[in-house]
TrEMBL record:
Belongs to the class-I aminoacyl-tRNA synthetase family. Glutamate--tRNA ligase type 1 subfamily. This is Glutamate--tRNA ligase. It comes from Candidatus Dojkabacteria bacterium. Its EC number is 6.1.1.17. It is an enzyme of class 6 (ligase). One of its GO terms (biological process) is glutamyl-tRNA aminoacylation. ATP binds at residue 301. Pfam families: Anticodon_2, tRNA-synt_1c. A motif ('KMSKS' region) lies at residues 298-302. Its main location: cytoplasm. Residues 511-550 form the Aminoacyl-tRNA synthetase class I anticodon-binding domain.
Length: 556
């Protein structure tokens, strides 16, 4: 450093003329929290730069449960300092997406224009003055400096580094403005040359630092020696500079974030040190991965629709099911816990960071489907109806119109095989409900693609006519079945599978084939829930119309 202490202090005044507050003034505004030791203060800090990723929900869910477990404070902070990548309504998307999953915050951004807490502002772009106070402090101490290098110059440096096979970046001897004289800096300022503020790194890349990550355990990384940018030329801070300041002022317990940041942890530690802040612990969550061939890869924003939170919302995945799955991915012990505590709220689960997958957890949409199916099978018809109604109001006009105009009928439909021994498990998400309704509504039924039966028409006609002759709506399920048995016997279909297997040639087929004709004629499908119950819900008139319609229109 060739600038004297006095020169650095002059430089700080020159660059930050408008900054009158000191770091002490700022600290006074952000008192330490008065909490019990076990009460955690965590934050989820997304950037509104794109759609909400299921990995965001995964990370946020972890913070939510950990803070709730400890009766602590969960904060939503918006990191919107990358103005070029910011998308419109990005904040609303984040808040709404997380709310959909029942992840609610105690402090920070709670909605559009709505915040809570005394540690704000909670949107980084509104905290620029705070960052400038700390940047000024660093410049005055010779720990940060203005850099006027243009894009072209930086590109040139990179080329030379590549040619010489040296590490690329702005550091050490390559950092042209690191030790510039006050005079030369003043000249550029007079010319109004755009500049950034960089860290004056004191690290040595050849030296190692060891730290204990809350998830990954011991990690060894090289010290930072990059003079990284702290304030960009547009005046906004980089993530590297903003998060140590925010996490310190907001009195966060530790940082839970995606492991794409692990490699910059040495830089962050150096910034904490330069700012004379107490170092914070980090827990780096590994990304959600997808199986591909023999290997696995990160769940991709572009290639995998299931990476988008909107995918779950639009298709009406039950949030409880998705959350259960994510907790399974986080701690594999969750499934055992769930088995033992089938009715407990997930907030009672003791989530452990050290049990998180360290390398990259596999994310499997088929498993989500299974969990959701299981979950929905535990609901009552009324609950399924309510959830589906709420979802469809926004996402499926057709479903909504049926559900809202035919409430009783729909609840009866959804109640088929929902009680008793065999519980139906054919609904994964609310958008599947329409397929369940289809066969029960004539207007939907007409347009449905129907399954066919492999049996000559005359025989089908005979079976259906016999069924129509004896069909009696008040019959119990066993009376109804006995009538089908009777039809089978009269037409030489076997009603005893052991007998049938002995000599199939003696029969035209089995009783199941007879039931299949009646099933397809009534519903257009080869697979349905219990046909007796289906008919009871449809009502006698509709059943007769369907069967007659099939005889008249489908059979030749
Ligand atoms: N804004 C950063 C991101 O979205 C946050 C990382 C963190 O939680 O510290 O990746």
């Amino acid at each position: 450093m060739i600038r004297t202490e006095q020169e650095n202090s002059m430089l700080a005044d020159l660059l930050f003329e408008d900054v009158v507050e000191s770091r002490e003034d700022i600290f006074k505004k952000y008192p330490r929290r008065k909490l019990e030791k076990e009460q955690l203060v965590l934050r989820f800090a997304p950037s509104p730069t794109g759609y909400l990723h299921i990995g965001n929900v995964y990370t946020a869910l972890a913070g939510y449960i950990l803070t709730k477990n400890s009766n602590g404070v969960f904060i939503l902070r918006i990191e919107d300092t990358d103005k070029e990548r910011e998308i419109e309504e990005g904040i609303v998307q984040i808040v709404d997406g997380l709310k959909y999953f029942g992840i609610e915050f105690d402090e920070g951004v709670l909605g559009k224009g709505k915040t809570e807490g005394i540690y704000g502002p909670y949107i980084q772009s509104e905290r620029v003055e705070i960052y400038r106070v700390f940047a000024k402090d660093l410049v005055s101490k010779g720990l940060a400096y203005p850099c006027f290098a243009t894009e072209q110059e930086l590109e040139e440096i990179r080329k030379q580094q590549e040619k010489k096979r040296e590490r690329t970046g702005y550091y050490g001897k390559w950092a042209k403005w690191r030790d510039a004289s006050l005079d030369s800096i003043e000249k550029e300022l007079e010319k109004e040359t755009p500049y950034v503020i960089r860290l004056y790194s004191r690290g040595d890349f050849k030296k190692k630092i060891e730290c204990t990550d809350l998830i990954k355990g011991r990690v060894t990384l090289s010290q930072n020696d990059m003079d990284s940018i702290l304030l960009k030329s547009d005046g906004y801070p980089t993530y590297h500079f903003a998060h140590p300041i925010d996490d310190t002022l907001m009195d966060i317990s530790y940082v839970l974030r995606g492991d794409e940041w692990l490699s910059s942890q040495p830089l962050h530690m150096e910034i904490f040190e330069a700012l004379e802040f107490k170092q914070l612990d980090y827990g780096h969550i590994s990304p959600l991965m997808k199986k591909e061939g023999e290997g696995k890869r990160k769940l991709s924003k572009r290639r995998d629709p299931e990476s988008r939170v909107a995918f779950y919302i639009e298709n009406g995945y039950p949030v409880e099911g998705v959350k259960e799955y994510l907790l399974n991915v986080a701690n594999s012990s969750f499934s055992d816990w769930r088995r033992l505590n089938p009715d407990s709220d997930i907030l009672e689960f003791n989530l452990r960071l050290e049990k998180f997958n360290k390398a990259g957890a596999l994310f499997d949409i088929l498993k989500i489907n299974n969990i959701c199916k299981e979950y929905i099978s535990t609901l009552s018809a009324q609950q399924v109806y309510n959830y589906a109604l709420e979802w469809s109001e926004k996402y499926s006009e057709q479903t909504f119109s049926k559900l809202s105009n035919h409430r009783e009928y729909c609840i009866n439909i959804l109640n088929i095989e929902r009680e008793g021994e065999r519980i139906r498990k054919d609904i994964v998400k609310w958008s599947d409900v329409l397929t369940q309704l289809e066969i029960f509504f004539d207007d939907l039924f007409i347009n449905m693609k129907k399954d066919v039966v492999e049996m000559e028409d005359n025989l089908q006609r005979a079976i259906l006519n016999m069924f129509l002759d004896t069909y009696y709506f008040e019959d119990s399920s066993s009376e109804w079945f006995n009538k089908i048995k009777e039809i089978a016997l009269r037409n030489n279909f076997s009603t005893d599978s052991t007998e049938y297997i002995k000599d199939p040639s003696k029969y035209r087929g089995r009783i199941g084939d007879v039931a299949m004709v009646i099933r397809v004629a009534t519903t257009g499908r080869r697979q349905t829930p219990d046909l007796y119950q289906v008919m009871q819900v449809m009502g006698e008139v509709r059943v007769r119309e369907r069967l007659q319609g099939y005889i008249n229109d489908v059979l030749m």
